[in-house]
């Protein structure tokens, strides 16, 4: 009889979440490297290079790959013969205690993003709990845990549909993918759940993202099942969309497509598609009663040696000195290297600004947006001598509803964020002769090293 200690669960979860915060799965790194070498678009190749360099830096520095350190999801298989050493905590509570310890670790604090009362006050829990836990009782005497930390940018792009039985799933994916924009931070993976009921399809899609990247091996040996044939078809169709890395075009939008299925009602074909971003983070471990999980650190030699240089064509811009006339000389697709001061804020900050302006109270003394740039970011807390922790861009479309206000009432010169803007927002930017700059998502630690001071 196997006895599983609750402390082993807590310690293993805490260790696993720290581990995945700075170590990409190696299969994902290898898939990114293949995409980098195959890419012909200079903009997309540049973006993949930044993601790979950031990945290696995070592995070296033991700091988060992405500033959005995610919502924790666990799939737990508990053997029917397992006994527990204590019954004062549920499995959910054990896992949440591990999450709490991981996210408040003083050596590598992770960003707490979980809000209680989601339809009301939306109060931060401060420790990233509770997590989402799926428990399954299985034959055996071990506990198997698959754990992931998933950012909001990719989670928010999940799509669910109840297709007719005769509808084509690959066709639906091909039509739906472009509507998701690039806020999910490609290149990544698509997890697709088919069958069961609406909620079952969603769980299947999420669980499929726990699997390793193996699409090239599948292509080499050939598809043998319906699911494998569909994976290959969707993989080809998705990459022909031309969305590419970070939405910049190119050959690789997805690195793999995963599919899990379940029996369903004769009248139904539920399908859920969930993308995984460039900051894919998951690990699997088994507890057999002998102690906590032993997660082996990968070797730095497993990361490719890639150098990145913006090149001679990049324009250097000092934001402290930039003028409207300067901005009007910038070209779409041009690479800018920024220095100087910028303001930061996400949707919560924009909402507060809106409330202050609408109330007639105005902005606090000393807050002046006129002629300034705002960077859409919520960094991880700094440690040691860092100015800020990892500080990659957040999804810019969340700020679209506030853009008219910011441009017409605050005099802001430009915005910096991740991925595309909505059509109406683009028109507003043109109208006000403003500018939007896109930074690479998935390169948060690399970005933070360019920030010399913050307050």
Automatic annotation (TrEMBL):
Q: Which cofactor does this sequence's record say it needs?
A: [4Fe-4S] cluster
Every copy of the Fe-S hydro-lyase tartrate dehydratase alpha-type catalytic domain together lies at 11-285
EC annotation? 4.2.1.2
Record keywords: 4Fe-4S, Iron, Iron-sulfur, Lyase, Metal-binding
GO BP terms: generation of precursor metabolites and energy
Q: Which InterPro entries match?
A: Fe-S_hydro-lyase_TtdA-typ_cat, Fe-S_hydro-lyase_TtdB-typ_cat, Fe-S_hydroAse_TtdB_cat_sf, Fe_dep_fumarate_hydratase
Provide the catalytic activity annotation. Answer: (S)-malate = fumarate + H2O
Query: Which GO molecular function annotations are given, in alphabetical order?
Result: 4 iron, 4 sulfur cluster binding; fumarate hydratase activity; metal ion binding
Q: Does the keyword 4Fe-4S apply?
A: yes
- A Pfam family that this protein carries is Fumerase
- Give the protein family: Belongs to the class-I fumarase family.
Q: How does it assemble?
A: Homodimer.
Say what the protein does.
Catalyzes the reversible hydration of fumarate to (S)-malate.
Q: What is this protein called?
A: Fumarate hydratase class I
């Amino acid at each position: 009889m196997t006895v599983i200690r609750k402390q082993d669960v807590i310690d293993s979860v805490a260790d696993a979440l720290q581990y995945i915060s700075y170590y990409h799965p190696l299969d994902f790194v290898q898939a990114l490297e293949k995409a980098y070498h195959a890419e012909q678009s200079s903009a997309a190749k540049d973006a993949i290079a930044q993601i790979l360099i950031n990945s290696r830096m995070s592995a070296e520095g033991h700091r988060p790959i992405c500033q959005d350190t995610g919502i924790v999801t666990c799939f737990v298989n508990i053997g029917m013969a397992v006994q527990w050493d204590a019954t004062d905590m549920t499995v959910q509570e054990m896992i949440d205690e591990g999450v709490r310890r991981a996210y408040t670790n003083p050596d590598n604090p992770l960003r707490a993003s979980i809000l209680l009362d989601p339809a009301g006050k939306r109060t931060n829990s401060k420790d990233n709990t509770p997590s989402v836990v799926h428990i399954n009782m299985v034959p055996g005497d071990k506990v198997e845990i698959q754990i992931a930390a998933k950012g909001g940018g990719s989670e928010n792009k999940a799509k669910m549909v109840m297709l007719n039985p005769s509808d084509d799933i690959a066709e639906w994916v091909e039509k739906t993918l472009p509507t998701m924009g690039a806020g999910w931070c490609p290149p990544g993976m698509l997890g697709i759940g088919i069958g069961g009921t609406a909620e079952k399809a969603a769980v299947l899609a999420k669980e499929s993202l726990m699997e390793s990247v193996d699409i090239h091996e599948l292509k080499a040996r050939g598809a043998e099942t319906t699911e494998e044939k569909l994976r290959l078809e969707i993989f080809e169709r998705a990459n022909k969309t031309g969305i590419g890395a970070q939405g910049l075009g190119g050959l690789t939008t997805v690195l793999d497509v995963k599919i899990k299925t379940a029996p369903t009602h004769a009248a139904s074909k539920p399908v859920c598609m969930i993308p995984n971003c460039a900051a894919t983070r998951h690990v699997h471990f088994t507890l057999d009663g002998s102690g906590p999980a032993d997660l082996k650190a990968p070797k730095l030699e497993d990361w490719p040696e890639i150098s990145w240089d913006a090149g001679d064509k990049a324009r250097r811009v000092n934001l402290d000195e930039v003028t409207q006339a300067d901005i009007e000389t910038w070209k779409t697709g041009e690479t800018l290297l920024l220095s100087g001061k910028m303001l930061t804020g996400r949707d919560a900050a924009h909402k507060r600004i809106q409330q202050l302006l609408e109330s007639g109270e105005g902005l606090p003394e000393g807050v002046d947006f006129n002629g300034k740039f705002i960077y859409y970011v919520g960094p991880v807390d700094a440690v040691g001598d860092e100015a800020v922790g990892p500080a990659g861009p957040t999804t810019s479309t969340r700020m679209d509803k506030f853009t008219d206000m910011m441009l017409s009432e605050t005099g802001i010169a430009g915005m910096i964020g991740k991925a595309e803007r909505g059509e109406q927002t683009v028109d507003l930017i043109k109208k006000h002769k403003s500018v939007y700059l896109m930074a690479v998502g998935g390169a948060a630690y690399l970005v933070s090293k360019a920030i010399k001071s913050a307050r």
